[in-house]
Specification:
Elements (H helix, E strand, L loop, with lengths): L4 H15 L17 H15 L1 H11 L12 H8 L7 H13 L1 H6 L8
Helix pairs in contact: 2-3, 3-5
């Protein structure tokens, strides 16, 4: 997905656009990488386990919605089915998780840990 030139061009455009705007008017682009769905979710949970155990538990619960998605397929079938309303959508759970982690990002950074490794 990230090698897609359309997405790359969009990200470049979005960055250029945001550089000209005040912070409250800037836009973002968020989502789960369906090509590594289970790994993406595990990375979020692993990070949260280091900064907020209760948030990690909430993330596990939200991401359990994806349990029907095969780890072998790793999200491609889920993405196809969700795009065509042919199966269970976990969009709200993913959005709720994203909103919570963004809402707490400053607090997590103040604790001395950010989403960057190293």
């Amino acid at each position: 997905m990230w090698r897609n030139t359309v997405l790359r061009d969009f990200a470049d455009w979005l960055r250029d656009r945001n550089e000209r705007l005040e912070a409250r008017r800037q836009a973002g682009f968020y989502g789960l990488d369906l090509y590594s769905l289970h790994r993406s979710m595990q990375e979020v949970i692993t990070y949260l386990e280091t900064v907020d155990q209760e948030a990690a538990a909430r993330a596990r619960h939200r991401y359990s919605c994806f349990d029907h998605a095969s780890a072998d397929d790793d999200g491609q079938a889920y993405g196809f089915a969700a795009a065509f309303c042919a199966g269970q959508s976990c969009e709200q759970q993913a959005v709720d998780q994203l909103v919570e982690i963004q809402r707490n990002a400053l607090d997590y950074a103040r604790r001395g840990r950010t989403s960057r490794r190293g």
